[in-house]
Amino acid sequence: MLLVDLNAVAPRERAEAFHHALTDSSVPNDVVHEEPEAGIHARMAAWRVGGLDLFATRNSGFEVRRTERHVRHHRSNPVVSVSLQTEGTHRAEVGGTRRTLGRDDICVFHELSSRVYGWSGDGASRAMMFDANRLGVPPDVVERASLRLPASPLYGLVLNHLREVWRDPARLEGDAGAPALASATTELVRALLLSAAHAEDAPAVRSVLDETLLTRVRAYVRRHLADRDLTPERIAAEHAISVRGLYVLLGEAGISLEQWLIGERLAKARQMLAAARYDRLTVAAVAARCGFSSPSHFSRRFRAEYGMTPGEWRRRRA
Questions:
Q1: Which of 283, 277, 278 has the alpha carbon at shortest distance from 308?
Q2: How many angstroms separate the CA atoms of 25 and 23, rounded?
Q3: Which of 81, 139, 158, 261 is at 20 to 30 A from 233, Cα to Cα?
Q4: Are 121 and 177 in contact (CB under 8 A)?
Q5: Burial degree of 64 (CB within 10 A; 0-12, 13-18, 19+)
Q6: At what angle do helices 213-223 and 243-252 cross, to 10 degrees?
Q7: Rounded CA gap, 70 and 168, in Å?
Q8: Integer Cα distance of 278 and 283 in angstroms
Q9: φ and ψ at residue 22, rounded to 5 degrees
Q10: Rounded Cα gap, residues 181 and 212, in angstroms
Q11: What is the spatial distance between Cα 5 and Cα 18, in angstroms, rounded to a whole number?
Q12: Can you tell me the distance from the alpha carbon of 57 to that of 31, in angstroms, rounded to the nearest whole number?
């Protein structure tokens, strides 16, 4: 959903409109703008995916300053923002440490910590807002972790997961799996923060990895549903556990790997067949994109699961 496009706002009112869209009285900040010849410009949009708020902005140069005074006057439930820098070189300062951030960086802020953030010239970012109480990571731990995120062995996994969520947030908003996705994303971000904060403490990192193993396995499988070689051996190897350990992990959660994998693939195929954007794909092509090597096997399993053939489901949607 589009929040604001400053091109539709009178130039003299743009700074105020920008501030109103970016923040409000319950989350105070100071905002300082560069003044390009074309004037301040910004386009902001927001989505809500399973209770998780997503916010994207592309705007001219600016800097947001959140001081101790702002923190003392904070009156809302605090959030932790986790953002990706999709355009430009960004600047961040937390706890007296200054950093520059680019496309391969995750930027994390806790609202109960002072900070400075912004960029020069045109830039863009995408942020997810996590309820700090639900995330359950204290402000000082978030701050410590934010300065050393790449030291965590979970960094690449979480970075790729965030990018996938951002691929099409509008489509995810109405998906039946959105609440589960939001929960899994929260768990992964919590794991990253705890792992990074204790990067020099091997036992603590191992504890975090163990506690989040099921979430990481499920997220990995969902990202690779189209891969026909998504075998138990590959899944286990990717997570540094034995195949037996993988089956024990899933068994304790009441999950049969084979049936769960087929169910996930069928659900993905069902979504694709219901989406107009895939109308040019044949049923067999959809099956292949969802990891089925045999169209006839796919059709049988689809009918057994949903009570109709893939073609009937597609025609019903149309």
A1: 283
A2: 7
A3: 158
A4: no
A5: middle
A6: 100
A7: 34
A8: 10
A9: -85, -30
A10: 15
A11: 9
A12: 15
- Give the 3-state secondary structure of residue 2: strand
Specify the pTM. Answer: 0.66
Distance between CA 313 and CA 91 in Å, rounded? 50
What is the SS3 assignment for 9?
coil
Which residues, listed in sequence order, are joined to residue 306 by a DSSP beta bridge?
A: none
Here the tokens at position 142 are: 């978030």
Cβ neighbors of 312 (< 8 A, separation 6 or more) are: none
**C-alpha dihedral over 152, 156, 160, 166, to 10 degrees?**
40
Other Cβ atoms within 10 Å of 47 Cβ, number: 19
Write the burial class of residue 76 (CB in 10 Å: 0-12 exposed, 13-18 middle, 19+ buried): exposed
DSSP-assigned beta bridge partners for residue 126: 56, 84
In which residue are the tokens 């597609």 written?
314
The predicted-structure confidence for 201-247, as pLDDT tens digits, reads as follows 556 556 666 777 887 788 888 878 888 788 999 998 888 789 999 99
Neighbouring CB atoms inside 10 A of 227's CB total: 11
The confidence score (pLDDT) of residue 224 equals 83
